[in-house]
Hints:
Layout: E1 2-6, E2 14-15, E3 18-19, H1 21-37, E4 42-46, H2 57-73, E5 77-80, H3 87-90, H4 94-99, E6 102-105, E7 115-119, E8 122-129, H5 134-141, H6 148-164, E9 171-177, E10 179-180, E11 199-200, E12 210-214, E13 220-223, E14 226-228, E15 245-251, E16 257-263, E17 270-275, H7 277-282, E18 293-298, H8 307-314, E19 318-323, H9 336-340, H10 345-357, H11 363-386
Parallel strand pairs: 1-4, 4-5, 5-6, 8-9, 9-12, 10-11, 12-14, 17-18, 18-19
Antiparallel strand pairs: 1-15, 2-3, 7-8, 13-14, 15-16
Helix pairs in contact: 1-2, 5-6, 10-11
Amino acid sequence: MRLLHTSDWHLGRAFHRVGMLGAQAEFIGHLVETVRERGVDAVVVSGDVYDRAVPPLAAVELFDDALHRLADLGVPTVMISGNHDSARRLGVGAGLLGRAGIHLRTEPSACGTPVLLSDAHGDVAFYGLPYLEPALVKDEFGVERAGHEAVLAAAMDRVRADLAARPAGTRSVVLAHAFVTGGQPSDSERDITVGGVAAVPAGVFDGVDYVALGHLHGCQTLSERVRYSGSPLAYSFSEAGHRKSMWLIDLDAGGAVTAERIDCPVPRPLARIRGTLEELLADPALTPHEQAWVEATLTDPVRPADPMARLTERFPHTLSLVFDPERAPDDPGVSYARRLAGRSDQQIAEDFVAHVRGAGPDERERAVLRDAIDAVRADEALQEVAR
């Protein structure tokens, strides 16, 4: 069976101030053509279809168009909700859509109930694990303490139990939206840390033939059977080095995996350039970036006059301007944002305690901070569901 694995469409999202709906529509057209030209038997979409719980009307219309075009091809599609989606909204009409071959899996309780598709070698069971917010699903899965690994392990126990009851030789595909250990994040994914931990080990998914992951925006191979497709478009300058693509997966009669990357259309390349303003305006090596979307980091010791206006004369698509004067790390002028870069909420809170009283928190106090941060995240998740 030939699968096309994609995820993280983020319909309705902008790139800085540039609307991406046209580029997203071009990607949908590319996906449909790939399905038609490469003889795809099933499409899997591993979450974050939309960029927010209540998407703009134009994004909903594009999603509707995508569903109609896929259904017209007669090729089944299996789709899960991600942490950016409203599972309830995305799942509306799932029963009716399933009759058209569009299988939406947004309910945690249905993790162990597969979509069964068949080829000449028998059945392939597709298990959809939507994004599982630990605080909201721990009771459903009977876990004592809310955590990503615990709820995903419980969901996979249901998958393996169902698979064990099926005829020998039934192949299996799991769709999941999670941060799996070994994956490389970018700046455009929403933080899903709970209890100080965001990642789960890949071993949670043992026992199935292929795991189609979503959440991280870079295309990645964690093992031959566990892969991220990544987002089809770049949504932050941290993705400047990404090659945006989908996975074309062939499952043979025994469940062995063969994978091929299918490149996605690039609306405009990204470039991150760094130097003083005069260097950026004069350097001939930067000529290839003159038509790219640009993030410029200025290292001038003093902020120059009208930097954006001057930069856009050479780089008309400059979208981001960062000031980062070359200074020693202990210089008091080093920006607060720079000092916090790459630090988790937990680390920032612990540093604040140390700064205020001269000593960092002990283990009991760390646990209190961790529980407080998790409570805020859980409250945000509940508000998202209620919208």
